[in-house]
UniProtKB/TrEMBL annotation:
Originating organism: Bacteroides reticulotermitis
Keywords per UniProt: 4Fe-4S, Iron, Iron-sulfur, Metal-binding, Signal
Signal peptide: 1-25
PANTHER family per UniProt: 4FE-4S FERREDOXIN-TYPE DOMAIN-CONTAINING PROTEIN (PTHR24960:SF83), PHOTOSYSTEM I IRON-SULFUR CENTER-RELATED (PTHR24960)
Residue span, 4Fe-4S ferredoxin-type domain: 34-63, 64-92
Residue ranges of the TM segments: none
Name used for this protein in its record: NAD-dependent dihydropyrimidine dehydrogenase PreA subunit
Any single Pfam family the record assigns to this protein: Fer4_10
Length: 94
């Protein structure tokens, strides 16, 4: 009986964790009219932004991050990942 309860509890826990994860992912807003760019002097080339970009829109050129505007969907994950604050938002029209 105890084993059954433990199993049931672990299932409930897994469901709660999954639901929370989905809610967090849904809250990652993609802005149609905003893209992101790199302030080169601030960039240390650490590549943290590369690892979080879902579009593979960032590459390192001459030791600095470069964002491909054609690929960027404006999710802002790179902005959050950059501890150097080298990434900033720009209007999509630029
Ligand atoms: S996370 Fe910031 S400092 Fe690191 S490579 Fe990307 S833009 Fe440069
Ligand atoms: S905003 Fe999103 S899609 Fe655009 S470069 Fe940053 S992480 Fe990649």
């Amino acid at each position: 009986m105890k084993t059954k309860m433990k199993f049931l509890k672990s299932i409930i826990f897994a469901v709660i964790i999954s639901a929370t994860s989905i809610a967090i992912l849904d809250s990652c807003e993609v802005l149609d009219d905003v893209l992101y760019a790199v302030n080169e002097p601030k960039c240390t080339g650490c590549k943290k932004c590369l690892s979080v970009c879902p579009q593979d829109a960032i590459s390192i050129v001459n030791g600095k991050a470069v964002i491909n505007k054609e690929e960027c969907i404006g999710c802002g994950r790179c902005l959050s990942a950059c501890y150097e604050k080298a990434i900033y938002a720009i209007p999509d029209s630029e």
